[in-house]
Amino acid sequence: MAKDLNKVMLIGRLGKDPELKYTEKGDAYCTMALATGSSYKDASGNDVERTEWHNLTAWRKLAEICSKYLKKGSKVYFEGRIRTTTSEKDGVKRYFTNIDVTDIIMLDSKAAGGGAQSSGMPEPMEPSGPKNDDDDLPF
C-alpha cells in the first residue's frame, strides 16, 4: 500500500513576533507569520519580486522554544504539515491554510544578533582534527 506524504519545508523571515497562547487544556501553541520571497521576469523582461505569507503554528515544547528564541525578522527554516480548516460566516464558507510546525532551524548569524549564541543556546562546536591551509594545497 502506498503511503501518503504531507510535508512542507520553508525558509523565510518572520513578519511579526511569535504569539504564545494556551489551549483550555493547558497545551502551549505559538502562532507565527512567515514571509518567503521569490522573483521572476515578466513578459517585458522586468524583474518582479513576489512575497508569499504563510501562517504557522507550533505546539507544546516547540511552541515555547519559538516564543523564547524567535522574533520579528528572524530567518528560520520550518518543517511541518499543511492543515486546512473551514469557517462559515454570513453564509460564506472560508478556507484557511496553516502549517503545523514539526521542526525548526534558526538561521540567523551570530553577528546579526540572532542564531544560537544570542538566544542563550550553546554555541556550535568547531570540528576537531587537522585544518587545511591554502598554503598546504598542492595546486
Overall description:
The chain has two helices and six strands; from the N terminus they run ββββαββα. Residues 111-132 have low confidence and may be disordered. The protein is mainly β and 139 residues long. The protein is 10% helix and 49% strand. Strands 1-3-4-6-5 form a five-stranded mixed β-barrel. The chain has a domain at 8-38 and 47-111: OB fold (Dihydrolipoamide Acetyltransferase, E2P).
Category from helices, strands and their pairing: mainly beta
In helices, the fraction of residues equals 10-25%
Helix and strand element order: EEEEHEEH
Q: What characterizes the major β-sheet?
A: 5 strands, mixed, barrel
Radius of gyration: 20 Å
Percent of sequence in beta strands: over 45%
Q: Which architecture name of one domain does CATH use?
A: Beta Barrel
Tell me, briefly, the overall form. globular
- The first-level CATH class of one domain is given as Mainly Beta
CATH homologous superfamily grouping of one domain? Nucleic acid-binding proteins
The span between the termini is: 53 Å
In CATH, the topology of one domain is named OB fold (Dihydrolipoamide Acetyltransferase, E2P)
Strand order of the largest sheet: 1-3-4-6-5
Number of strands: 6
Low-confidence stretches: 111-132
Individual helix count: 2
Please state the average pLDDT score. Answer: 83
Question: From the structure provided, what is the oligomeric state, counting identical versus distinct chains?
Answer: single chain
